């Protein structure tokens, strides 16, 4: 999580790098074991540093939904251990799994999920305490408000209490809205009324004082009636003093249909003073998936990750599973599937590469830039614009900040083996974070120096970097742009 970045960065990165060679070999072996020969298209996807390490550079986590029964499959397990810094139980912590009979609790699989998180230095995310689905019949049959409230409290006490101090956040209430923004008529809504949400949050705070408490739903990804109902509820809960810390956006999406207001929607919740998270990301398409559909899917995954990076209070992104072979999608949406970044043989798809690139992950085996380059041209002493570089600067602003997207092009005739970008920020702008480069601000001067993996830029080549900044009203792009001391066009 962003607030813990400075504490956990070094230990996590050390673990992932140390395990890199072993897990990469196991992943390939796992693909062979399930009978999937590498096809040319699949083999073409490069291998990047683990997502978890690249995400740590931004102070966020990347998670996945774990079904512990799949851990016996070496391909599944290798990806799970290598890529993710957060783990959520796909089903093992839901009500029917933990309390099938009133007062009789079963935590076998849930404990396996918790143990996996601990063993792999990953955060544990709790899902879910109060939900209308996967609910035992005995809960559905309760009609007396006092009786149902007691059952809800007892369940929260037992489940959240068991993992108190280990879970970073809980989906306390899940899927409480209809798509039109009205309350879903669950047994909790029918018997207890609107107040059950605040009651559940307060009880969860008692059971696990250190966990963040979230509401979670689907089809709330863009600005619409359903997300606005959630927004208004968060405003109301905060006014009541109810403990609401975060909102989860499931993001079970369709290829080519990421809402245009996706980032705007995340930002408006963050502006309320709550954290946000993409909690159940998958992006489905008609199967068998075409090459064009997989390419669009990759662009969609990138859009979602970049939206999170653009919102300072976005804690991270969780994908709902690992591979297409274990996805819930085909069983629910006939003729649909191929929704995850790895295929059924655990081979990376373009979506894997898109996420890695959005996080600024280094390609494994990329050479480090020469610290004393001998072939780079000397800076043009005249500073004539456009002689060896051009820079395109895009600004995507909201009320208190903006995302700067920067494309740097080598327009000269000599390759760069390293580069440094400098520019002057308008008054009132301040650097918050950046990616794909080493960013710094001194006074009004913004500086970006290449990362280890993108210092080499051939003539005509480009490199793309980005950053988030705060502003006090002026959202114009920086001026006085230079690369390696030469003024750029």
Automatic annotation (TrEMBL):
- List of catalytic residues: 280
Q: What residue stretches are annotated with the CBM2 domain?
A: 382-489
Q: Where is the composition biased (Polar residues)?
A: 473-489
Annotated region described as Disordered, given as residue ranges: 362-388, 469-489
The residue ranges of the GH10 domain are 45-358
Origin organism is Isoptericola dokdonensis DS-3
UniProt record similarity statement: Belongs to the glycosyl hydrolase 10 (cellulase F) family.
Could you name the domain of life of the organism this protein comes from?
Bacteria
Regions of biased composition (Pro residues) lie at: 368-382
Which BP terms does GO give this entry? Answer: cellulose catabolic process; xylan catabolic process
What GO molecular function terms would the record report? endo-1,4-beta-xylanase activity; polysaccharide binding
Q: Which reaction does it catalyse?
A: Endohydrolysis of (1->4)-beta-D-xylosidic linkages in xylans
Q: Does the keyword rRNA processing apply?
A: no
* Short name of one Pfam family: Glyco_hydro_10
Key words, A-Z? Carbohydrate metabolism, Cellulose degradation, Glycosidase, Hydrolase, Polysaccharide degradation, Signal, Xylan degradation
Highest classification ranks of the organism = Bacteria, Bacillati, Actinomycetota, Actinomycetes, Micrococcales
Q: What is its EC number?
A: 3.2.1.8
Q: Kindly provide the name given to this protein in its UniProt entry.
A: Beta-xylanase
